[in-house]
Specification:
The chain is mainly α. It is 70% helix and 1% strand. It is globular, with a radius of gyration of 24 Å.
Amino acid sequence: MKKKNSTTILLLILITLISFVIKIAYINNTEIITPIRADAAQYVLYGYNLYKHGTYSQAQAPKPTPDSFRSPGFPLLIALAFNLGGIENFYLYTLLMQTALTSLLVPIAYLLARMLLPFWSALFVSLLVAFSPHLISISSYILTESLLSFLFLTALTCFLYGIRHSNNYLILLGYIFFGLSYLTNEVTFFIPFVVSGVTLVYFFYTKQPAKKFFPIKIILAGLIIFSLFPLGWTIRNSLNVPSNTIKASNRALNTITHGTYPDFIYKDPTYKYFPYREDPDQPEYSSSFDNFFKIFTQRVAERPFRYFVWFTIEKPYYLWTWNILQGQGDIYIYPVKYSLFTKYPLANYFKSFLKYLHIFLHFSIYIGIITLFFDKNRNVNDHNIYVLFSVFLYLSFIYTVFVPWPRYAIPYRPVFYTLGVWSIYSISLLSHSFKKNKNCRHSRWLRVRRFKKFE
């Protein structure tokens, strides 16, 4: 057993190092056209103002006014990069930290997958995480996804591992990382409540004996700890942010309106993925929630079935697709002059293979959801798969409310890969069980015939 554990650790270290080297090679062989732009430019301004003035603001002024338009988690990482490398080298330090964080996803993803899958399947998940073109490319962008992927996966793994091993400290550590995830992206706000609710329902439904671990008290304590993060951020905003500055609610409404156009088109297909640039009602549409509901209900009334299909099928599907859609497309958010995948044909062929595998895993997940209702031989680790599918469905729902850019799903790739591989594994077990039962029924039928013949 010790020899097997040592081999596993060595394999994970090797895969993690390979993942790190590939990401460094990608950064060195990729030229992003104007990397500090749009969202990235805002994050850099926040980080710089924290470093230079100790003020959380995106304003370019000698004395910047505090605001709350962006979440503070990622700008804090950039501020750390400014402190380490100064203005000249902050960009390099940010990329190095992001590369390290996304490489550490490899062993964490293995730990998560190993709670559901046999050794080789879990190791395959860690390989998918290590070689994921999206997780490779995202390390080169000054965007939140790299940091969020590490914080979120660590939170989820600590929580599930703590529940499985009755370890209160790991459970509480999971809630702390959920809090840090929230400070990086507010969309994760409800996830601690989702995983907590699913866990409590599972323990209650399976009627765990009283002498066994029942996590209700520690879960309530964890939720209280988690709540301190959004509470602290809210208090800071109410005390320090002037009422006339831009707020996160403005950004949320903009995002919601951007996601209401079926097929990402208003009228002219040339504006696909940017329909709000063509829509003459967009300024009013995104000015207030009252105006939004007024215009939105009018548009739905004109094409109710089209909007029904858009919100129930197409938007959840788009979120988990391969193509970034808005941006250069494929795996690129901001346009690149060239990249590791365009310079080296072998790397590009491998990316193409992973693209088709991604499509297969995506389809398998939906089949996997169905298998949950037909699996009669569920094992003791069922709780974990219910939690992961609940997270998957929550994310699909929340980005259906907002806008389902596939870029937003990149931080959750390890969960996606785990569910995809588990679904394939589960389908194979069900198929084997079905064949076994069929053979057993056939054998019983033959025995009955022989017995009657003997009579």
